[in-house]
Amino acid sequence: MGAGPFLPYGRQDIDADDIAAVVEALGADFLTTGPRVEAFEQAFAAAVGAPHAVACANGTAALHLSMLALGIGPGDRVAVPSVTFLATANCARFVGAEVIFTDVDPDTGLMTPATLAEALERAGPGPVRAVLPVHLRGDVADLAGLARIARQAGAVLVEDAPHALGSRADFGDGDQPVGNGRWSRAATFSFHPVKTIATGEGGMVTTADADVAARLRRLRSHGMERTPGADPWLYEMREPGFNYRLPDILCALGQSQLKRLPAFATRRRALAARYADALAPLAPHVRLATTPGWSRPVLHLLTVLIDFEALGRGRRPVVEALAAEGIGTQVHYIPVHAQPYYVGRYGPLDLPGAAAWYRRCLSLPLFPAMADADVDRVVAALSRALGLD
Ligand SMILES: *Cc1c(COP(=O)(O)O)cnc(C)c1O
To answer: pLDDT tens digit string along 181-201?
Structure first.
């Protein structure tokens, strides 16, 4: 059917060096906790400018560990944007805390100081321990503004940053990489195959706080601690943890992928620029999601906002017409506050920014192996599907 191979909305890019790194790890002494774990952590910390990086099983485990390491639990509340993946909200529930859903800006999809302030006001008095901005698509949320409001509420920031590996932002004190610990207590990443680097399953937490890093390491492996110089068999547990380790095999892949991050970032930026040019004639009914002035993203998702109502088209026929031409799309995301579990727990919520975002959003293919001509093919098919050709 399509004019070329199927284009998913995102996919991993594994080359011969990546494969060689995994094969080498398979022949080494440790398949689980070996030297490649620390090597990957150190390389990752260096890549995002963070003092500490702790590898773990996946991005959801990274969020769960962050909640545990910050001591968040029953009676606490955590503010989360409604437009995100389920795990951002669920991690609060894993530890028995309650979720405060914030609205998002309808054009960026991001939590803002105004939507955070509104949500805290709506939630009323009571402890708010953490605010979890999500750098949706790779654009950086207003960390400076959010940090100010979080501080007033007595909360820390935890960035859920799986979309933003390689993204940077300037809040008036210089251009800084996401995850370096400048604005937040911790930042979480995922290496799911659609993310910017892939290990299959995999995650990371970065932090500038040595105590948080130590607690993350303990909790990642059952809460076990060994004291240097103690009896060689001895370990102690002061609090129960999990098995959230990332195996040596996958850390080998992660380290190899991380070496390719600069090239991935360059390619993603070039593809995004080409999309911007190609989509310009479809305005105002089709627009790229807005990049805030401080954000220098490496986009994970290429999300367009389509005024389906003005065009008299439904999203589903457009998605199906693109699929018939071999073009994959995805909706990022169904607002989490509207999930049956959360409606059951907190009742219905009216978040107009999230609703406006959800009505219009569609993520188009974006991954490093795409050719320039693939972008043109996607935009031409989208124009046809919307009757804009
Ligand atoms: C992918 C993702 C997660 C979860 O990561 P997994 O590795 O799939 O567990 C959490 N939050 C956001 C925003 C994500 O995109």
So the answer is: 999 999 999 999 999 999 999
Catalytic residue among 52, 77, 135, 195: 195
Identify the residues whose C-beta falls under 6 Å from ligand 1.
58-60, 84-85, 87-88, 134, 160, 162-163, 190, 192, 203
**Phi, psi of 244, rounded to the nearest 5 degrees:** -115, 30
Residue 1: what pLDDT?
A: 47
d(CA 364, CA 7): 9
- For the segment 5-25, what is each residue's pLDDT rounded down to a tens digit? 899 999 999 999 999 999 999
Tell me which fold the domain 261-385 belongs to.
Aspartate Aminotransferase, domain 1 (3.90.1150)
195 is catalytic: yes
Q: Are 272 and 366 in contact (CB under 8 A)?
A: yes
Q: Whose CA is nearest to atom 4 of ligand 1?
A: 59
Residue type, 362: L
34 conformational bin, left if phi > 0, alpha if psi -120 to 50, beta if neither: beta
Residue nearest to atom 15 of ligand 1 (CA): 162
pLDDT at 2: 52
Which stretches of the chain are assigned E, i.e. beta strand? 52-56, 77-81, 98-102, 128-131, 156-160, 168-170, 175-177, 186-190, 203-207, 224-225, 236-237, 286-288, 295-296, 302-306, 361-364
The ligand 1 atom nearest the CA atom of 201: 7
User: Considering the entire predicted model, what is its pTM?
Assistant: 0.97
CATH of 16-259, one of 3.40.50.2300, 3.90.1150.30, 3.30.70.1130, 3.40.640.10: 3.40.640.10
Maximum CA extent, the chain? 74
CA of 142 to the centre of ligand 1 (A): 20
Residue ranges, the chain, pLDDT below 50: 1
* Cα–Cα dist 195/69, whole Å: 25
Q: List helix spans (H) across 131-247.
A: 143-153, 210-220
CA dihedral 83, 87, 88, 89 (to 10 degrees): 90
How many other CB atoms are there within 10 angstroms of residue 366's CB atom? 27
Of ligand 1's listed atoms, the one at least distance from the Cα of 84 is 13
Rounded Cα–Cα distance for residues 337 and 303 (Å): 21
Residue 53 to residue 201: CA distance in whole angstroms: 17
In the chain, where the domains are located:
16-259, 261-385
